[in-house]
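Retry 2 of 3 after timeout on previous attempt. Resubmitting structure tokens to design endpoint.
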């Protein structure tokens, strides 16, 4: 399981001509799944992201987590996190989980994040989405479980 986590001041998902999800400050999380991922992996990742201390305290140090700031999370499914472009010019996505595996894990991941008490907005799995965000810092982290 991979998650690209970005600290943001704003983030939106647009499908067609309509904004389907938006947050004002917090974390934008692009999440992808591979064939061997499990519900336990999704729970681990949700706990990890919810507890990340990537927000500044009064001294400007990254000591605060999302709950301390009152921010939200925008989660977007992103199978291309498992793209492999090491050979040739066209990426291969064979390492990305098929929808029948990825959708339940995506839904569990979102439920696990919501269970922490955080506000969670989402994209739509498999939709053609336009994601817009303002990265704050910039702060961007790539998380993987199990660790490579």
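Retry 2 succeeded. Sequence:
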């Amino acid at each position: 399981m991979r998650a690209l986590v970005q600290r943001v001041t704003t983030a939106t998902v647009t499908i067609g001509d309509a904004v389907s999800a938006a947050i004002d400050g917090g974390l934008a999380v692009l999440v992808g799944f591979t064939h061997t991922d499990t519900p336990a992996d999704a729970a681990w990742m949700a706990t990890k992201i919810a507890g990340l201390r990537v927000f500044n305290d009064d001294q400007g140090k990254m000591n605060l987590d999302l709950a301390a700031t009152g921010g939200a999370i925008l989660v977007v499914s992103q199978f291309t996190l498992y793209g492999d472009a090491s050979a040739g010019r066209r990426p291969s996505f064979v390492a990305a989980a098929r929808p029948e595996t990825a959708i339940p894990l995506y839904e569990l991941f979102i439920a696990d994040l919501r269970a922490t008490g955080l506000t969670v907005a989402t994209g739509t799995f498999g939709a053609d989405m336009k994601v817009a965000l303002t990265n704050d810092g910039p702060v961007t982290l790539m998380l993987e479980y199990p660790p490579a």
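Attempt log closed. Helices lie at 39-51, 66-69, 99-115.
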